[in-house]
């Protein structure tokens, strides 16, 4: 009686307490996260669907880890959001949950939290922005930020032009409309089977985005009745499908971190090397920025992810029988998918980029536990390169001298940025694709090999080696590199080599000491003490495995 009476203070009639499924709607709407701000309206559409299907919808807020404003990086708080989502679902009397996400880290955080509870759950991502338009051409939010910054540094664009352009890149609600991390994770949620087919790509302001949300509200009620849980969907085969789809769409390298973390939550064995092994025979089919020229609106109208999935399945590159939130198999969901623009979504036989052009995983004495490079966004002539290192302990150290005309740097230089890993920054920020030195840009140099233990925005591009593991702050070999050391990047050979003798490295290690952490309390202290390395998903070591819905001690 006491619980019902408090709920009735909101105006609910007694008939909603008749035993119907209680559906939580977890929304990360926040004005501090522009990509997620419209999710309040999306939640209303979900509610319509839940009511229609005979459920009782109750929306509740979660934090929003927006990459746009959070400092030092939203990645620092992905695990905190996952913990919050998990505990909110477990603590409240819910039978199922709809997850509303948008910006980069909100999608994996919500999936991680829901997987750890293992109640029936369906993801609804908020959708991409409309295509950016500047001077009669399409521009991509995120991707063109880096391009315009380079143009400004090179003196080919004025500050006033940049001010005008920034309003052209982000002209509607939604997340980045390039194949950045937000778009990638929306597509991978669909490929995993956790999102309704075709729903990853509808623009945020398209009416069909809200139709999709309403359909998700209807479907979650049936999932409760069927007891279709994430543990039945997130299988090893589903993760293999997601890895191959990521290769086919030219997806973000950040997907590796998030899929590794999610797999850890459901106890599925997954390693960084799987991304290389499974992606080598997959061509890039989707011609989208930053690797190509189109944007998410174009991808949507060309047929969206169902076309990619159907083409990969018909080529024998996917496990077609994996279960999805529809209750049907992945292949059944896309059996009638049609492509309306083969330039945007190319056929497998005539791909946008050939097999093996996706993300490569490197190992070697500079990255014993692995590093990654997005080949489709790199300069082909730099994928095999040897040059002298120019080392900076922090990205900020580099930025302070990047415009110095006397900086000792050439087109052969290998920029090394360290101190950007999970523990070192902390939070593993997207600082790896630092802009090129101004003196090189003015001389027409457009790319440089960069190596970092941090991440790169999915909207970024360039020959950038990321996620070097172990990181420098944890004593990885990156901590021992000195300016002038020669480094070889051999992407075809999948190796990253520091040309320094083992004896010299032993001597350098003896003289090295771990940086002292300034954090003695609070969440950041917890993070730095318990976060795993990039090759393990940068999740907390105490959150591996599903804990289930639990049984409250006071169940009356």
TrEMBL record:
Which keywords fit this entry according to its UniProt record?
A: 2Fe-2S, Amino-acid biosynthesis, Branched-chain amino acid biosynthesis, Iron, Iron-sulfur, Lyase, Metal-binding
Which top EC class is given?
lyase
For this protein, the Enzyme Commission number is: 4.2.1.-
InterPro entries (alphabetical)? Dihydro-acid_dehy_C (IPR042096), DiOHA_6PGluconate_deHydtase_CS (IPR020558), ILV_EDD_C (IPR056740), ILV_EDD_N (IPR000581), IlvD/EDD_N (IPR037237), Sugar_Degrad_Dehydratases (IPR052352)
Highest taxon of source = Bacteria
Q: Which residues form the Dihydroxy-acid/6-phosphogluconate dehydratase N-terminal domain?
A: 20-333
One of the GO biological process terms: branched-chain amino acid biosynthetic process
What Pfam families does this protein's entry cite? ILV_EDD_C (PF24877), ILVD_EDD_N (PF00920)
For this chain, one GO molecular function annotation is:
2 iron, 2 sulfur cluster binding
PANTHER family per the UniProt record, alphabetical: HYPOTHETICAL DIHYDROXY-ACID DEHYDRATASE (EUROFUNG)-RELATED (PTHR43183:SF1), HYPOTHETICAL DIHYDROXYACID DEHYDRATASE (EUROFUNG)-RELATED (PTHR43183)
- Similarity annotation: Belongs to the IlvD/Edd family.
Q: What is this protein called?
A: IlvD/Edd family dehydratase
Per the UniProt record, the source organism is Amycolatopsis carbonis
